[in-house]
Amino acid sequence: MSTNRLVRLLGLGVALLAAPVIASADVLNFTFNGTANQANNGYIINQAVSFTFTLKSFGPIMPAGSATAGNGYEWFDEDSDNDPELFASVSGTGLSGTWTRPATTNLAPYSFMNSYATGELQFFAGTDSFRVNDTGLTANGQGFRELFFSATFTGLSTALGPITITLPDPTDYFGANLIGNYAVASQNIAYLFTSGPNTTTNFTLTSLTISAVPEPSSYAAIAGAIALGGVLVRRRRRA
Predict the structure, then answer these.
(1) Hey, which of 82, 95, 181, 223 has its CA 20 to 30 A from 107?
(2) Residues 139, 42: contact at Cβ < 8 Å?
(3) What pTM does this model have?
(4) Rounded distance, CA 48 to CA 25, Å?
């Protein structure tokens, strides 16, 4: 094998490793960062907090929702009989357990994510049921009921581009060109609600990170690129 061909193939492998692994099968993390404003539910004032919503990998099944031309997209999970589950997991500072889709009744889930042309993003994970253990989570030992974040992020409005009336798969929509970090500009509303004596804890959001979580098939592609590079190097040494 010629030196030039070896270099080209190795360069391809390196490029595959260096490129962001974004595919329709991948899932996305939305991590909201901020500080606590109250000493409730085990949190303390000015405590740094971080909460992550991980989307489901929807595949051929689209999440429920709606789209408004010139306004934005709304994806929701409010009816377990008809709406695909929106979040694979919800985690963060002070949270313990594993997020479970509420199922006391078919209407017990109450989760949504809204993305507007203004750059405002809203995330809500919770339950309509008063049986807070339906969510599978606790917040510093208190029964978890709901978590809500709403803010306008600098740069997100430009990246959203034109809004159409066709509801996209949120993984493809955000994963295509919105991976990155965004600072909060305005419209800062954030709270966690529990069954504790001081049920609500308010937060101030400072930033959002959108990141990809490659599926096993993506890791296999990376491993294949590494193996290809190793084979080519061994062949070159034997030559």
Answers:
(1) 95
(2) yes
(3) 0.81
(4) 32
The length of the chain is 239
Cβ-proximal residues to 4 (8 Å cutoff; 6+ apart), any chain = none
- How far apart are the C-alpha atoms of 22 and 28, rounded to whole Å? 9
Q: Which two tokens stand for residue 31?
A: 């991590």
Q: How far is CA 171 from CA 60, 70, 73, 77, 152, in A?
A: 12, 20, 13, 15, 20
User: Are 208 and 153 contacting, i.e. CB atoms less than 8 angstroms apart?
Assistant: yes
Rounded to 5 degrees, φ, ψ at 161 are 70, -165
What is the C-alpha separation between 140 and 113, in angstroms, rounded?
A: 25
Residue type, position 23, single letter: A
SS3 state at 89: strand
- Distance CA(177)–CA(179), nearest Å, equals 6
Across the chain, which distance is largest between two alpha carbons, in Å? 74
> Which amino acid is it at 101?
R
Residue 127: exposed, middle, or buried by beta-carbon count in 10 A (0-12, 13-18, 19+)? buried
Helix ranges (DSSP H) in 144-215: 156-160, 170-177
Alpha helices in the chain (DSSP H): 3-18, 156-160, 170-177, 216-238
Residue 4 has phi, psi (to 5 degrees) of: -65, -40
25: number of Cβ within 10 Å: 14
Provide the mean pLDDT of the chain. Answer: 83
Name the one residue in this structure whose structure tokens are 């692994």: 21
List, for residues 167-221, the tens digit of each pLDDT value.
Answer: 999 998 998 889 999 999 998 999 999 987 779 999 999 999 999 988 654 444 4
Q: For residues 201 and 92, is the Cβ–Cβ distance under 8 A?
A: no
